Here is the input.
Amino acid sequence: MALVPEPNPSRYRALWVTLGAVGVAFVIAGVVFSAYGVSPLEAYRAMLEGTLFDPKGLQEVFRRTIPLLLIGVGLTLAFRTQFFNIGAEGQLLLGAVFAAGVALFVPLPPFLTLPMMFLAGAVGGAVWCLIAAWLKSRLGVNEILTTLMLNYVAQYVVIYLINGPWKGKDARGYIYSDQFGPAAQIPVIPGTNVHWPTLLLGIFLAFALQFLLERTTLGYAMRVVGENPGAARYAGISISRIMLLIALITGGAAGLAGVGEIAGIHHRLIEPLQLSSGYGFTAVIVAWLARGNPALVLLTAPLMGIILAGGDLLKVSLNMPFRVVDVFSGVMLLCLIASEVFVRNRVRWGR
Amino acid sequence: MDEILNAFTRALSFGTPLLLASLGAIVSERAGVVNLGVEGMMAVGALAGFAVAYGSGTGDGNLFLAVLAAMGAGTLAAMLHAFVTITLRANQFVSGLALSMLGLGVAGLLGKRFEGVPLFNQPPELPFTALAIGLALALAFVLHATRWGLALRSVGENPAAADALGINVLGVRYFAVGFGGAMAGLAGAFLSLVYRPSWTDGMTAGLGWIAVALVIFVGWSPFRAIFGSIFFGLLYYLQFRLQGQSGIPTEVFASLPYLLVILVLALSGLRGQQGNAPESLGKPYQRGER
Here is the structure.
């Protein structure tokens, strides 16, 4: 077997290879399910029926699509410029913390509360991401490790707050903060958990960032930095300034996702693992599936939303541990990056 | 005096899995392949070791077999990374991340049936610690004073030149990544068989990531890894020792290792340590490319 480079791969080629990779991932994850003692066909049937063909399941998919969309669009931009932000999980949490701080302690006219929460959440997420970006641009510290470590730190920040100074008056057993007032709750589509203003924000961001990337000088500079840092330096583009900007956007978007979760669903600051359920990591796959196009995240985020909601169903209906989602995520990501070689190369069998 | 001695022995014990895993990562990175899957490989190794120890015999099992199984499982997981990054030339960082998720996922899924089941015999820690330190010294020797070490290092520094000298670049890389997996698996087995003979999901608790950071901290030197791992071991000890004793919230202590990794990485960056990295670290090798 030999690989022959394909200089100008068509869009269809990328599409077919991606679909193939997703298919292979489902097969491999199925093998793991069998090893656990659950028939993969049974598992996939339960996932599909419970998400797409059930009104309650469908709204779960939407609810999970919102944070994935917000984080995913940011990450496509980050990966496009070779900034491997793995810390969206922590950035989401910090966004939630900042927004909760506003909701709980800042007296504001009611119409200003939600906008201020969104703003504060974006700032919180951005700050958390900027730490890593700053360390990378100043000291060359690998951002994968720092963003990842900051995830753990963010978890403890949340636990400290809801267990200590922000502990709710009625919190017994579980730990959480006081409930937010009505002015700090994002409206939902009646009868569902879908907080539509955040959804619209995600859709807007997807198109806005696509426009930024493809149609503006700044976007062009970002693409050059990602594809050829040497050329960028030669052209006088400040790589570190672009990196900080990217961190600001990705971290900010992840922070917004955190605001959506607490102001749209839980209405209080709760334990980190319940608050996020791995959105930061799943969004890495969302972004990778979109192959660097923010607008394509509008398709890939719901797809992974199905997998997250489906994973929940497997927990309940087939009594599987929550790690099923990690198996999916790991296999899917491995297959996706492994498949990239088949987009850029053609396979020739024999010698 | 007793207090100091106690602190030191506990530091050695906490440091042992860190040392084992980071030695594996050092070899892999010296050959030019970053593997961020250490956490996942450790988790898989911990489970395989525990399962075999539990399954062989009446609950106590055969320690040797269990350790071998853990190393085998780690190697198997590492081979996935090797295939994807060396043969298919995929992004090493993302592949390692995916491997960590997969390893934690598979271990958590398949390990569910062992949750809360005790192993009755706790093997002594000391032989493992001695083995780790011995391995570090041996690796330092092999890397710097033998032809094998030279070949390994040249593959990580300049694969094209190594190839021209007739060294099988891809073969060396596969071997180095596999060795890294075996060591991560062994580190996992230390956790589930020796340190706390039991299985719980997420028992690796970020140690794999700390091992990855340790590699940078010690400048890819197996010898210095001994002191680096004891240093981190001491911090772990202090974290447990000081918890609840002072007025400081426990969450501060719990987040200390992670904050410390960031600090250590920043310090290594400040010292220009990152410049010690093998020249071709993270770059796939393709024959015939200039």
In short: The domain at 1-271 of chain B is CATH 1.10.3470 (ABC transporter involved in vitamin B12 uptake, BtuC).
